[in-house]
Specification:
By secondary structure, the chain is of the alpha/beta class. It is built from 27 helices and 23 strands.
């Protein structure tokens, strides 16, 4: 057989095709050469296409990979090990490592990668663009597969070489075959282009053979891994922020934590720091998303370091990507922090923390800086180590501090921390007065309250237009909603004189909220908007719910058991031929960064997300947001609005489409029984609360007011008062 004998389509799409099974494996089985040029490579792809690679291996085949330097630590180590072992094999004539199919198949991806390199079956070259502005990355995505008869299959498109690209991304690529007259010229053009790159004969790029690539060169790119997620917390003076060689950041923890000269702070940021200092370095920075929390916080730490000779600094964040972003910013202040969480590159962070803390207590070190997630901070091991700081000068900084008010986390707020700083755009915890009060008691008074309205007025955030899109539950959805509501009523209990839901009731409430989030009417309304002028637009964000669609009689069946985010991704990409990518917790840091970069460069028109963009990820290019799912929790919808309002060159305003969900269509409300209408009120009021908050600051407030008035009239809610709802209405 040859490549001519297998069935190949002219185009493959990940949400329609099984890329590994339908394309990679059958093509590689017939091949003797596989050449791949990609912006991002991960060894995870090897585990998915092992069957094809084994046949290529048996055919005496050879693999060449051209990639950007954005490689994971473990892949770098496997590649390095492979080349080292290749030298040993050549010098000592060592027998083959890969003996048979079972041996080949059972090796883990890293071992297989190292073995293929060691045997001279796989070679890496690293590509760096040599651009005049010094920025950019190698971003091409081309593949070339050749069989023993000289037949060639070339493919190109959006897909990188990783399992995530094959399984989870929405990707597509076109396929060209050398034996087809219409494709022959295209195939040869791609072969020649690849070969020129491999031989380092292409202008404006430099190609490095992997054994020659220095660790510093690789790390230069790894350090920049979170550059597009990093919060740009304030503007800068004429002096631009310099490029930082993080490998040369001082590791002497006796140096001061110093605010860099290029960092310009606004008067409101300096006033907040002054007040925090006057409050004995305790307090809260309550600042809207995008107004400078991170740099204000770090500048406050620098101020404390000016006045305290010996200081341990503990910085706590809810998520791993936030920890990494803070770590990058801390280094700009001259300190190399200990970074601790379960997946941290600093595998020995516990040992280093214990060792450095001992030196700190002995006076050998004057500075100690530890960065970690909430989970790591609350672990028994870390709490035991940090408990040894008693009697020392210690500062605790908590980012997204509303999270630390959770019952299991607030127990970590120890009196050992003499100095305290909380940062949050949404400090008040939803339906948790105890948690909110615990935060305020521990950290003290607010040193600044810089809200969204002020930020827009003072041009620190972008003004926006707000369009409520009214949707309603289907008959099937309403039936499920009512059933869950009845079950919830039996779960009400009294605690300290207040009605609340027991644990079962809380789980039912989550299920009911997901029914509302996944209302299929939102799909048709989104279609109308896309067809009305957004099909060819860029810089869009679609927020979905963590829910599955439940329509029974329409095009979407309850038996499909498909998540809303997956359905919308397919709809946008397949029905409208748009370029979108999901942004969820499934993607690793490298994949997220590549998606954000592709989004910034216009390769991706829209990001489709659930909650992963809620806290800490900065994507200022977003101009239009479609919010299909939102809870009553102000923290969530305020953060989602904030994602869209970041300043960006050329961005004069943002547009928000908020999908308001009612139990019944507005036109049907006058014909409903009084009891049915009364049962709808709690959901209607919850949606109206969000509508009022969003339209309050919108440039087109009057338009949103008209929709608000229509809903008030339909349900005769003339005495509706957001601040005067009963406990029952707030809960259910």
């Amino acid at each position: 057989m040859s490549l001519r004998d297998i069935t190949l389509k002219s185009e493959y799409r990940t949400l329609k095709d099984d890329i590994a099974k339908d394309f990679y494996i059958p093509a590689l089985k017939q091949s003797v050469s596989y050449k791949r040029a990609v912006g991002f490579f991960s060894s995870s792809i090897l585990a998915m296409i092992t069957d094809g690679l084994y046949e290529l291996y048996q055919n005496g085949g050879y693999i060449q990979i051209l990639a950007s330097p954005r490689l994971s630590d473990e892949d770098i180590e496997a590649i390095r090990l492979g080349y080292e072992n290749r030298d040993i094999i050549i010098k000592n004539a060592v027998v083959r490592e890969l003996r048979d199919y079972e041996d080949f198949k059972t090796r883990d991806r890293l071992n297989l990668l190292a073995c293929l390199i060691a045997e001279g079956r796989l070679d890496f070259e690293i590509v760096e663009p040599m651009l005049t502005n010094g920025s950019g990355m190698y971003h091409e995505k081309v593949g070339i597969i050749t069989d023993a008869e000289g037949n060639i299959v070339a493919f190109s498109g959006s897909m990188n070489e990783s399992s995530n690209a094959v399984e989870n991304n929405y990707e597509s690529f076109d396929v060209f075959c050398s034996w087809k007259n219409a494709d022959e010229e295209r195939v040869m053009s791609k072969v020649e282009a690849f070969n020129r790159l491999w031989e380092d004969q292409e202008e404006n790029v430099k190609v490095f053979k992997f054994p020659e690539v220095k660790d510093l060169f690789i790390k230069k790119y790894q350090t920049d891994c979170y550059c597009l997620q990093k919060e740009r917390d304030c503007d800068f003076d004429e002096v631009a922020e310099p490029k930082v060689d993080y490998d040369r950041v001082a590791t002497d923890d006796n140096i001061a934590f110093v605010r860099p000269e290029w960092l310009h702070l606004y008067d409101y940021q300096l006033e907040a720091i002054d007040k925090w200092q006057n409050n004995n370095y305790c307090g809260i920075f309550d600042m809207a998303t995008g107004t400078g929390k991170t740099y204000t916080g770090l500048a406050a730490v620098a101020r404390l370091c000016e006045n305290v000779e010996k200081l341990a600094i503990i910085i706590v964040c809810p998520y791993q990507h936030l920890v990494e972003q803070w770590a990058g910013d801390v280094r700009k202040f001259g300190v190399n922090p200990i970074v601790g969480y379960s997946g941290s590159k600093n595998k020995d962070y516990k040992r280093r923390l214990a060792s450095d803390l001992f030196d700190f207590r002995m006076g050998i070190k004057k500075r100690l800086c530890f960065l970690c997630t909430n989970k790591t901070f609350s672990s028994r091991a870390i709490q035991e180590v940090l408990g040894k700081t008693r009697g020392e000068h210690v500062l605790l900084v908590v980012d997204e501090a509303h999270n630390i008010g959770a019952e299991h986390l607030r127990k970590t707020l120890s009196v050992n921390y003499e100095y305290r700083l909380a940062l949050s755009a949404t400090l008040e915890r939803y339906q948790d007065d105890d948690g909110t009060m615990a935060i305020k008691r521990f950290f003290g008074e607010k040193c600044i309250e810089y809200n969204l309205g002020r930020a827009i007025q003072e041009e620190k955030l972008t003004p926006y237009y707000y369009y409520p899109i009214v949707t309603s539950l289907s008959k099937e959805e309403y039936k499920i909603y009512q059933e869950l509501t009845k079950k919830m009523m039996s779960c009400l209990i009294k605690i300290n004189g207040k009605l609340t839901l027991n644990e079962l009731g809380k789980r039912l409430a989550i299920k009911r909220a997901r029914v509302v989030s996944g209302a299929v009417d939102k799909i048709s309304k989104l279609r109308d908007l896309i067809e009305g002028g957004y099909k060819d637009k860029n810089n869009m964000l679609v927020y979905c719910g963590a829910t599955r669609l439940v329509e029974q009689d329409g095009d979407i069946s309850i038996h499909d058991d498909i998540r809303q985010i997956d359905y919308i991704s397919r709809m946008l990409n397949i029905d409208y031929d748009m370029r979108t990518a999901q942004f969820t917790s499934k993607e690793n840091a490298e994949e997220r960064e590549l998606r954000l970069r592709a989004f910034a460069e216009g390769e991706i028109q829209a990001l489709v997300a659930i909650k992963c963009l809620d806290e800490g990820v900065n994507v200022p290019q977003i101009q239009t947001a479609f919010i299909l799912a939102s809870t009553m929790n102000p923290k969530e919808y305020i953060q989602r609005r904030g994602r869209v309002l970041r300043l960006y060159p050329g961005k004069k305003f943002a547009v928000i489409y908020d999908f308001i969900t009612l139990p019944h269509a507005v036109e049907d409300v006058p014909y409903l029984d009084a009891d049915v209408r009364a049962g709808d009120i709690s959901l209607v009021k919850r949606e109206l609360c969000r509508l009022l908050e969003f339209e309050r600051l919108a440039k087109n407030k009057h338009e949103a007011d008209e929709i608000y008035s229509e809903l008030i009239d339909a349900y005769e809610l003339y005495d509706f008062d957001v601040g005067n709802e009963s406990v029952w209405e707030e809960l259910v």
